[in-house]
Structure formats: structure tokens, C-alpha cells
Amino acid sequence: MARIVTTFPLPDAALDLLRPLGSLAGPEGWRETMDDAEALLCLLTDRVDAELLGRAPRLRIVANAVVGYEHVDRDACRARGITVTNTPDVLTDATADLAMALLLSAMRGLSGAECSLRAGEFHGWGFWDYLGADLSQKTLGIFGMGRIGQAVARRAAPFGMRVIYHSRTRLPAADEAAAGAEWVEFDGLISRSDVLSLHAPLTPDTRHAIDADALRRMRPGSFLVNTARGALVDEAALVDALRDGPLAGAGLDVYEREPRIHPGLLDLPNVTLLPHVGSATRETRTRMAMLAARNVHAVLTGGAPLTPVP
Ligand code: GLV
């Protein structure tokens, strides 16, 4: 019987689906059970590298229960004929919702205002106190126009925002119209956005796409939102841009060296900092676990994976 290894606790419905296929191991001590594993269910915090694969000679599928897969050595998997899957679509809405929450928080200075209240500094309504920025009539720039980027664009329209985007591939005209978004070159995205929201995958090409040079070219008083991957941004340069301009604020859910947060970010009142919770709703996390389990089920029963990564 196949041995299925999981690095995280699975919901009952996933266990019911997988139990008939063979014994299940993990999450406790999962690394020690890889020698006869045929399937691995894992997360973005699990490095699936050549060393781990070397300990799993029978492995047939790595089923990520997340959408990003930069933590998996895909070349090594391909060379061994191991299928790699992820969980697209099921977390699009939750992540786009959180991007809007961070956008609102950054533009209205919610974290700083709440901290000030908790510190006993709210002495009554003040006409010029706690001023943020309007969303309406502002330009939202989206870097990476996949499913989540498009969902953010659709959410921004009812707030009266103009949407521009830059993606490696331009959307077909119908999708562009549905998202209400205009394609621009990367330089135009950087120089025209009042708020820039990141939704690109982390690849060697996108690492530090938002570096000191790009940050310097952003509009005075603009904002950055990152719900994608921390390393898209040079975090030290971001701290400088928030401290000395041109940025007025930021909303961050992801960091360059999680779980470490750059100390400069922790010191700044104009940044909302969340602990990587983009997809963290009960419904969404359950769908992610179930999709990973269904991918394992498909491959171990001789079918095609539902959501293989390219
Ligand atoms: C979460 O960050 C994911 O990649 O699904």
C-alpha cells in the first residue's frame, strides 16, 4: 500500500479520501518517513530540495497545499518524473480580499491610528488628525496580473480607482476589459501608481523587482502593498523609502526572510504588518488542503493531476 506523508494536519474529509490508498504518516516526524513515501503533502515552509528527494526513492507526487512553489526544486522533481501540484483558484478571493484590506489600511493609516489610540493618544475628534489618502481617483498599479491580480483589479473598481498593470504576458483583450485594467511597461507602472500592489510569483526574474532604484522612481506619497512574496522587494531599500520618501506607507503580509521582520519595518508607524495570512480563512484553507489531497488521490490511482504546476 502507498505511504502518504503530510507535513501538516489534514481535515477529516481529506483523511477519508486518502486512507483507502494506504498508510498515512505525519505531521509528527514526517521527515523520517520519506524512505517509502509515494506522496508528500506539504506547505511553503517545507523545503523540497534534492536532499529530501534523495531520501524518497519511491516518491510520485509533491502536492503543495499552497499556490507558490518556489520552495520546491522542480528541476529535480522533473528529472525523477515526480509530479508537482499546487492550489490555484481556491485562494484567489481570500488573498485579493486581504490585499484590499492592506491597501485600505495603508492608505488610511489604520495601524498607526489604532496604535495611537491604544497608547492613550486619542483625546477626541480632531479636524486635522489621523489623515490618510482617498482611494477614489487614484491609480492602482498591479505587478503580476494572474488570477489574484485580476481579482484585486475587479475589487478596486467600485472604490473609484483607475487600474494599470504590468505582467510578463499581456492579458487577452476580453480579460483586460473584465478587469478594467490598462497594460503598461514596468517603468510606467512604477512612475504612475499611487498604490502599487504585488501579485507576481517569486522567480529569479522577479526577485527584488522592487529594488532601491524602482522605489526611488515611485510617486511622492505613494503606497506599496505586498501579499505575494517578500523577496519581490528589497526590504532594506523599502525601509529607506518609507522613512525618507517617496513612500507614504505600506501594507505587508509577506517578508524577505520569514519569520524575521526587518527591524526597520517594526519601528515604522506608517506600515501595516501582518503574519502571512493572505489565504488564512477557514473555508479557503480547507479548500487548499482538499485540493492537495485530491491531487494525491488522482496520481496514486493512476489519473492525471488536477492542478499540476508548469
Ligand atoms: C501562500 O502564500 C501561497 O502560496 O499559497
Word description of this protein:
The chain is of the alpha/beta class. The chain folds into two domains: 2-90 and 282-300, NAD(P)-binding Rossmann-like Domain (Rossmann fold, 3-Layer(aba) Sandwich); 92-273, Rossmann fold (3-Layer(aba) Sandwich), CATH 3.40.50.720. It is built from twelve helices and twelve strands. The chain has helices spanning 12-18, 50-54, 74-80, 92-108, 110-118, 147-156, 173-179, 186-192, 212-216, 235-244, 263-266, 282-300, and strands spanning 3-6, 24-25, 37-42, 61-64, 83-85, 139-143, 162-166, 181-183, 195-198, 222-226, 247-252, 271-273. The strands form two sheets. The chain has a seven-stranded parallel beta sheet with strand order 8-7-6-9-10-11-12, sandwiched between helices. A five-stranded parallel beta sheet has the order 2-1-3-4-5, sandwiched between helices. β7, α7 (173-179) and β8 (181-183) form a beta-alpha-beta unit. α1 (12-18) packs parallel to α12 (282-300). The protein is elongated, with a radius of gyration of 21 Å. Bound molecules: glyoxylic acid (GLV).
Largest sheet: 7 strands, parallel
Strand pairing plus helix content: what structural class? alpha/beta
What Rg, in angstroms, do the CA atoms define? 21 Å
**Extended strand count:** 12
Total count of helical runs of at least 4 residues: 12
Number of domains: 2
From N to C, what is the helix and strand string?
EHEEHEHEHHEHEHEHEHEHEHEH
Q: Strand portion, in percent? A: 15-25%
- Fraction of residues in H or I helices: 25-40%
Which ligands appear in the coordinates? Answer: glyoxylic acid
Classified by CATH, the class of the largest domain is Alpha Beta
